[in-house]
Structure formats: C-alpha cells, structure tokens
Specification:
By secondary structure, the protein is an all-alpha fold. It has helices spanning 3-34, 43-61, 66-74, 76-104, 108-119, 130-175, 181-190, 197-217, 233-250, 257-276, 295-307, 316-327, 331-340.
Length: 358
C-alpha cells in the first residue's frame, strides 16, 4: 500500500475512533450527571459549571451590595443548567461529524450538516448507504433519548428544590431571619414550647438526609438560591446544627436523643456535599480541635439566653467543651459551603466564610 494511502487510512481511522470516543464519553458523562442515583463528580459538568461560575462571580464582585450580588448569582445555576444540554448535544454532533467525515472523507462542512440533520431529526441531509444509515439512525435515537432525559430531569430537580426551601422558610418562625441558634432557643422558651424543638430535630434529620442525597446526585441544586435573598439552605442548616449543639451543651434539661441524632445526620450532610465538591475538611477531628466560633462568642450567647430566663447549666467551661465537641464535626464544611454558595449573612456560618480561602 502506498505511503499516501496508508497515511490517509490512519487519519480516517484516527478521526473515526476520536469521534466514537467523544460520543461515548459524552454519553457516559450525561448518564452519570442525569441518571446515576449517586454523587459522581463528572469532569464535563465540573468544567461547564466552573467556567460559567467564574464569569458570574466576577460580575457579582463588581456590584456594590449583597442584594445585587444575589440577583446576579440567582441566574447562575439555572442558566448553566440550560447550557448543559447544549454542550452535551454539541459534543455528540461534533463526534458524529468526525465519524461521517472518516467514512467518506467528504468536506467537513458536509459532515457537520449530516450530523446536525440526524441529531436534531430534521432529515434534510442523508446518505443512502447501509453504514451511513446505521450511523444516522443511532445519532437520531441518541438525540431523542438525551432530549427526553433532560426534559424529564427538570421536574425532579425542582421537586427537591421546593421541598428544601419549604423547610428553610418554616425555620424563620423558630430561628428568625437570618436564622440563629440563640433566637431558636430563646423564642421557644418565650412561648413555653422548648419541648416542641423535638419536632424540629426530627423534621430536620429527614431534611439533612434528603439534602445529602439530592445535592450530590443533583449537584446543581447546591447553587440554586432561595426565593428570598436573606435565606440560604447553608445558613439554615448551620442554625439548626448550632441550635441542637447549644441545646445539648448548655440547657439545664435531660439529654435529648433527637437533638443528638439531628446533629449526627446533620454534620454528615454538609460533609458529603463538601466532599463531592472537593472541599477540604478534617474527616476525623478531635473534640478539642479549634473551631471558627470563639469561646467569647459562645459566652455572649449564653449570657443573652440567661438574661431572657433560659435555664442553663452552671458549669460554663464544660458546656463550652461540649459545644465545641459537637461543632467541630461540621464547622469547616459548613463555613466553606457558605463561601462556595455565596450565602447571605448569618452568624456563625457565612459571616466567617473567609476561612474557605485559608
């Protein structure tokens, strides 16, 4: 075989296998992103969200107020999620265009038209040969499957978003806005319903489990912002975790198993979400490791609760050690998730998210 023909055959074979590789890799990425019921960090999704996210953060950084930043960032996740199908379909189109070009060595523009016609089932370009028909039909079927998959995916995402935000909105009646552990305990004491916090711990234990599942299998949900600018799923989670930790550490009441289980479920959720997004944190902290909340801040909250008549334990040093021992389990993951999502101001979470850059 002449060298020129051999070189041409190698080029055609390389283009064919490159095209098949692009289509296969894109299909696997789409399945991992939209279908696989577990958190898988997909390179394609990460690149698209990371690239567009940098543009949005740059634009948000040029605004003067948090409300303006929130309006900018509110478009980030929905717009990026609309872009994902376009990126996936474009890669499939490009991959099949290389396959068609390799099969016939036609001008690349003609291969592009054939690929686009097959993928979008327009039918204005076609070749009446067995191999071309097989390729065209496979691309058309793949295009329909991907379109149906992406359309069916949105209701699942918004159902999970709605469930998440319902609990966040209801928390305001317990913990104020922005939500704080101090207000949660003080308000419950004022209305004589400290026992009603048991219902809250149980409700949020379920909420944490649902968020852990949905925000890793449906990762873009982490960036969908609350309807109200002052609310955030991250700061709400922090307020509930701190509320349960304070309740167990300082309240002059019997040990509450529901609060302890809420913390256990609760600190696993931000950890797993943070792990999915490659956020560093210590998975096995010691109870006496430093946390972002100082003992002075803790003492100030205790004094404020005492002033409102809330019965607290006498041994404040032990109470601090107990609180810090609970908080250390979720401290870093919570604070860095607040930074990642540009959460609104809330004490003991987003107000110290500068730690995310350390």
């Amino acid at each position: 075989m002449p060298a020129a023909e051999l070189g041409l055959l190698i080029i055609r074979g390389g283009a064919f296998f490159l095209g098949v590789g692009i289509v296969g890799w894109t299909l696997v990425s789409a399945i991992k992103t939209f279908v696989l019921p577990r958190g898988v960090n997909v390179w394609l999704t990460r690149v698209v969200f990371g690239g567009i996210g940098r543009l949005f953060r740059f634009r948000a950084a040029r605004t003067q107020s948090y409300e303006a930043q929130d309006r900018v960032m509110a478009l980030f996740a929905p717009l990026t999620w609309v872009m994902m199908p376009l990126v996936i379909l474009t890669l499939v189109l490009a991959g099949y265009a290389l396959v068609y070009w390799a099969m016939d060595m036609r001008p690349l523009y003609e291969a592009f038209k054939l690929s686009g016609s097959s993928l979008l089932t327009l039918g204005y370009a076609s070749e009446d040969t067995v191999w071309f028909k097989l390729a065209e039909f496979s691309e058309a079927m793949l295009g329909l499957i991907l379109a149906a998959l992406l359309i069916a995916y949105l209701p699942s995402m918004y159902a999970a978003f709605s469930k998440r935000e319902t609990a966040v909105a209801l928390l305001a009646s317990y913990a104020g806005s922005p939500p704080t552990a101090q207000e949660m305990i003080a308000r419950s004491h004022r209305i004589g319903r400290l026992d009603s916090l048991d219902e809250l711990w149980s409700l949020w234990s379920v909420w944490f489990a649902e968020v852990e599942e949905s925000h890793t299998s449906l990762a873009p949900l982490a960036f969908f912002r609350s309807p109200q600018p002052q609310r955030s799923w991250v700061t709400a989670a922090g307020a509930v975790l701190d509320g349960a930790s304070l309740y167990l550490a300082v309240m002059e009441r019997p040990f509450n198993a529901r609060a302890a289980l809420c913390i256990r479920t609760g600190y696993l959720a931000p950890r797993h979400v943070a792990q999915f997004f490659n956020i560093d944190f210590d998975a096995n902290p010691n109870p006496d490791d430093p946390i972002s909340v100082s003992q002075t801040e803790f003492e100030a909250v205790c004094e404020a609760l005492t002033a409102q008549g809330v019965p607290l334990k006498a041994d404040r040093e032990q109470a601090w050690r107990d609180f810090a021992g609970w908080r250390v389990n979720y401290d870093t993951a919570l604070v860095r998730l607040a930074a990642m999502t540009m959460a609104p101001y809330a004490p003991w979470s987003s107000d110290r998210s500068v730690l995310a850059n350390e």
